[in-house]
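@channel anyone free to eyeball this complex?
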Amino acid sequence: MERRDEILHIAGQLFSQRGYHATSMRELARHLNLQGGSLYAHIASKEELLIEVVRQAAARFLGVLEGLEGDPVAKIRALVRGHLRVIAEELPRATVFFHEWKHLSPPFLKEARALRRRYEEGVQGVVQEGVDKGVFRTESARLATLFLLSALNWTYQWYRPEGPLSLEEISEQYARLVLRALGVWEGGEDGEA
Amino acid sequence: MERRDEILHIAGQLFSQRGYHATSMRELARHLNLQGGSLYAHIASKEELLIEVVRQAAARFLGVLEGLEGDPVAKIRALVRGHLRVIAEELPRATVFFHEWKHLSPPFLKEARALRRRYEEGVQGVVQEGVDKGVFRTESARLATLFLLSALNWTYQWYRPEGPLSLEEISEQYARLVLRALGVWEGGEDGEA
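replying in thread with the prediction:
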């Protein structure tokens, strides 16, 4: 692993475990077996680390959106699976993306908000497409989007690789719960839900 | 407000905004216009404040469970409404209950886990009751419970009193989304969903 990647990796872990404010550069250097000063050869500030971790997590989530294809039901299935896989594979970074971004100051705060919004709007686009095609039924595509993203995001709190259900099983059942909430019934409109 | 209540109120706000580790007793004293030392006339430690805030939030959530009555559909509706109301009214305390509890050490950590589990089990009991009565359909009452609690808990991230939908409207639509996910269709089995 490149030195910079390693620094970002450890920073993500510390920020997610202890919180951004409670993580000092000295502590970070200690975890990397570096002198405090030599850390600054690689990065300009603690805040630069935070925005970098947020960017990395955002890239993973936005990558899920880019890979979606097929009808709205297939897209929601792939979205649920992809979103949960990012959380499972990137638990510390996802936690920072979900929480610690708030401690950024402008202009980084604005950038983080824009990245989060881009993902939300992408998800809402899928929901809206389903509504427009008459496949999903919901009073408000906006609230339905917040509902499904809430159900997905919170999994970082309870998902554990050693849990009783595999990620694949959780994804399957979660997709079915989300699709039902969107009005797609088993054996419903699309004949495969 | 009693002095101790005021201390807990401010502690909840600081812990939720900056995180438990990043909040110092000195800072807390400053927000209360107290000398650092005189804080200790009211409380023994920073950790005592954390467990107290967790207990207060837990009492509010458990109070929702105790107030449930009627059939499983009515219970889920009241649960969604009650849970969202606690979050809206107690945003800082709920945030601490959702996140900062992890920074407790034993035996407080164990107590916080038990309180959170008691609530989860209560919710799962309602889901299971609906399954047993043939009103809800779900592959796993456990996963459906985690799904609905995830959807509810995450609202503390985006709910704002000044938002476009009132708490009442959000609760109504959320309850319908949750009930659909549990297999209760509009005009479905219970004739009123």
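from a first look: Residues 155 and 189 of chain A are 29 Å apart (CA to CA).
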